[in-house]
Amino acid sequence: MLSHLWQGKQNKVLGLDIGASAVRLVELSRTGGRYRLERFAIERMPMNAMSENDIKDVNAVASTVRRAFLRSGSKVGNSAVAVSSSQVIIKTITMPAGFSESELEEQILVEAAQYIPYPMEEVNLDFCMGDTVGDGELVEVLLVASRSENVDARIAVLEQAGLNAAVMDVETFALENAFPLVGTQMTDSAQVHTVALINIGDATTTLAVLRDGNGIYTREQMFGDIQLTEAIQQHYGLSFEQAEQARQNNELPEDFNSEVLPSFRKAIAQQASRLLQFFFSASGVSHVDHVLLSGECATIPDVAAAVAELTGISTSIASPFSTMALSSNVAGQELEKEAPAMMIACGLALRSFDE
């Protein structure tokens, strides 16, 4: 079915990043050209509510979203959420530039069936018009499709939490949308043209390569914060639930920083290096100017240094709130600690200002 996964200009929306281990909420406003963080909240996800990127228990996830919403104190009912990049099919096609909107939609449904390995009645599909090509008689069209069950589960969660799904996005697009918030944080940023933004999230690691602020490559692989919990579980002979509880309660053994964390930090660097090699092989590009790390695992001490050492590329931690004004509702100390993990939520909240 043809269904709008993202919309045009919106009223204010909350950015809601529904991850395997937590829900992250961001509310932004804008005065002139400067953004202001009005509210944010993080609420941990119950065990088994999510399986990697799939919602398994709608009731549990909805309750978590509701707690995050109430904790934030926000009054905004419209929300922007995202499906994982691994749950979507993205394809760029060319179409005649002279089609009317109805003709375009009809033809897109025909074209999309060639690329989507599911019955069209089981798919949510949207498209975005791009640039004209050649002599101007053709136009590029970006197709994005996801199985309806992925979209419907997120809509059900929001409805049960008392919120409205105003925007359904894709995590990679949200990550790229947040890049302008961090693009000037790099040393000699004026000389940096190609940036690898690597988001090491709860269950997945996503690479988005941008050249002069425009996305040119994305890739996602299964690796994230959950692997650290599993490493704790295996090293100390705990159940997964016990290991996660120890992390949340800050009750890890004294030798955690010396016995477990170094090997996980090395694993992050290896994952980053592997993603970059995929990009180099696929694109023919031989280097990137800078690596920016975000996501839950970007808060791990010295992780940027580990990535820089292995890849030979200057690396820093993304902080999307660093240039924003902060409302009196925001606890600055908690925000500083959690900022790198809020990139996707910020990218979603920025949909409030789409034209």
How would you portray this structure in words?
The longest helix is centred in the last third of the chain and has 23 residues. 35% of the residues lie in helices and 30% in strands. The protein folds into 3 domains: 157 residues, Nucleotidyltransferase, domain 5; 61 residues, Dna Ligase, domain 1; 132 residues, Nucleotidyltransferase, domain 5, CATH 3.30.420.40. The chain is α/β, with parallel strands linked by helices and 355 residues long. It is built from 11 helices and 16 strands. The strands form 4 sheets. The protein has a 6-stranded mixed beta sheet with strand order 10-6-1-2-3-16. A 5-stranded mixed beta sheet has the order 13-12-11-14-15, with helices on both faces. A 3-stranded antiparallel beta sheet has the order 7-9-8. The chain is globular. Strand 8 and strand 9 form a beta hairpin.
